[in-house]
Structure formats: C-alpha cells, structure tokens
C-alpha cells in the first residue's frame, strides 16, 4: 500500500476524501464510489511501466478516473487535450486521440481504428498506440469487484 502524506476532508466539499501520497501522486475518493488518481509528470516513470499501472512513455502525467456507477475507468495521458483511454467493464478498451480518431480493442480480440471521417480499419496489435496498450488502472490492488 502506498505511503500517505496527508489525508483530508476539504471544507469546500466534505463529501470526498483527498489523499496526498509520498510518491507525489494524489487520490480523491468520492461518496458515490468514484475515484480520481493523479500522477504528475515528475513522478511518472520514464518508460511504460506495466507492473505499476502508472504513467506513460517519457514521464508524461496521467489522471485516472473511475466512474463507479458504470464501472468504467477513464485515463487521460498528457493533461488537457491528451490521449484519453476508456476501459469498459465488458473488456472493451478505447483510446481517443485528439485530431485523428480512436482505436478500439474489443473483448473478442478484434482491433479497429476509426478515423475522424468515420472510416473503420481493422488493425493488428503492433499497429496500435502505446496508450491503448496500457493496462487498466488499479488502485491499491483493488479490482472492479472490490470497488
């Protein structure tokens, strides 16, 4: 379990718990079960780290958000306007790339790219971006059933 530096119930919104971690990341736990996990660029690893579910290539920052009501993770790499990756409970994963379209990995193994003009192209895993190949985030080793 990560070491906690500070935990607080902010006076401006006592309906969620903010936790600052020793590694520089932070988490916000909301009453409705949602979780927001922020990893700043300076603490994200320099390479894709599949073992810790943190960061992306070249140490870019990432924000992971878990929508409890629908069981979906939403990760944004590189801040506002960055690549957005959605992990749906049925196993589908989508990466939305600003300006050129989205990649979709279906639970049955089918992989597609959808361009901004709506063209759909079947692709192989080698053709997919680093973003869509990131593992689904996990907070403190909890899986979706525990959340």
From TrEMBL:
UniProt-listed InterPro entries: Tcp10_C_sf, TCP10L/CENPJ
Family: Belongs to the TCP10 family.
Protein name (record): Centromere protein J C-terminal domain-containing protein
UniProt source species: Gonium pectorale
């Amino acid at each position: 379990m990560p070491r906690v530096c500070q935990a607080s119930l902010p006076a401006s919104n006592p309906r969620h718990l903010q936790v600052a971690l020793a590694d520089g990341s932070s988490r916000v736990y909301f009453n409705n079960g949602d979780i927001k996990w922020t990893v700043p660029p300076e603490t994200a690893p320099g390479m894709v780290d599949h073992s810790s579910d943190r960061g992306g290539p070249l140490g870019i920052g990432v924000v992971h958000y878990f929508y409890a009501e629908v069981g979906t993770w939403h990760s944004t790499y590189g801040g506002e306007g960055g690549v957005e990756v959605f992990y749906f409970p049925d196993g589908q994963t989508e990466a939305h790339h600003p300006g050129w379209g989205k990649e979709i990995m279906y639970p049955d193994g089918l992989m597609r790219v959808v361009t901004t003009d709506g063209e759909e192209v079947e692709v192989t895993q080698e053709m997919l971006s680093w973003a869509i190949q990131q593992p689904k985030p996990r907070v403190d080793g909890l899986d979706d059933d525990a959340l």
